[in-house]
Write a structure and sequence with these properties.
about 270 residues, two-stranded antiparallel sheet, 10 helices
Length: about 270
């Protein structure tokens, strides 16, 4: 009989007091935002960004707010936890130490933030979207690794040799797919490699503004739906499928529309 690994990782980095302390999950957000900021600055220095270096600072701030507010609100509005809990105690929205973020809500928050930033700075919303999606998978990669360290969002029961027992975090005694790592590889590493290659090695952002954003949304939706096959649903199903799959259908449609409708500019120079 195979001896499956039992998850016993500490979600805190260093000492902590109850739920207060430096968590790997929080560190993942910080590293994701800092890494994204550095990549955006590199793109701006190379002349591949619609904003200035100073504008990058404001842009990343807007993205941070979009991710945090959208992700947190989405956790309640998209049904991952009863909305009545927010109505009964509105302050629960700010109790981030209790966990609860929805990636699809974070996407909506970022779209709103980019629309506001584009209008305020009078830059192309599509070009701005292409720029930002080139770095988004970095945050997804780090976030999914942090999910694994936390022992949350585990997969369905499995017999594969690399299955993990999440008994210490509520997953029961049976071995399960480490679906967090599957998603880290697909949503994070694979999409990051694709986005960075397309952004730096092709002229897609100049020739078809909005197409790269469409490719990201389409790619994310497809790999997310694939990953959901192995993941234990963390909320009630919708029309017989997990919420992650259901909401990804809308991302797939939005991504396909962007790919099909992205305007052709004819610009393929490397100035």
């Amino acid at each position: 009989m195979l001896a499956h690994w039992v998850h016993n990782l500490n979600p805190f980095l260093g000492p902590h007091w109850g739920k207060i302390g430096l968590r790997y999950y929080g560190l993942a957000y910080v590293l994701g935002f800092v890494g994204g900021w550095l990549l955006l600055r590199a793109a701006t220095r190379a002349g591949r960004s619609p904003v200035t270096l100073e504008g990058v600072d404001d842009l990343i701030f807007a993205v941070v707010l979009g991710v945090l507010l959208g992700g947190r609100l989405g956790y309640f509005l998209l049904g991952y936890t009863p909305l009545s809990a927010l109505g009964a105690d509105p302050l629960t929205l700010f109790r981030v130490t209790d966990g609860g973020m929805a990636s699809h809500g974070g996407f909506v928050g970022v779209v709103v933030a980019l629309a506001w930033f584009a209008r305020r700075r009078k830059v192309s919303f599509l070009a701005l979207g292409d720029l930002v999606v080139s770095v988004v998978p970095l945050g997804l990669l780090l976030g999914r690794i942090a999910n694994f360290i936390n022992g949350e969002l585990w997969g369905k029961p499995a017999t594969v040799p690399w299955a993990v027992i999440f008994a210490n975090t509520g997953g029961g005694p049976e071995p399960r797919h480490p679906s967090q790592l599957y998603e880290a590889a697909l949503e994070g590493a694979l999409l990051l490699a694709w986005m960075q290659w397309r952004f730096w090695r092709t002229e897609v952002t100049r020739a078809r503004p909005g197409r790269l954003a469409g490719e990201f949304l389409t790619g994310y939706a497809l790999v997310r739906m694939f990953g959901e096959i192995f993941r234990e649903p963390d909320a009630a199903l919708i029309l017989g499928v997990s919420r992650g799959t259901f909401y990804s259908v809308f991302l797939l449609a939005a991504g396909a529309a962007l790919i099909a409708l992205a305007p052709k500019t004819g610009k393929t120079d490397t100035a």
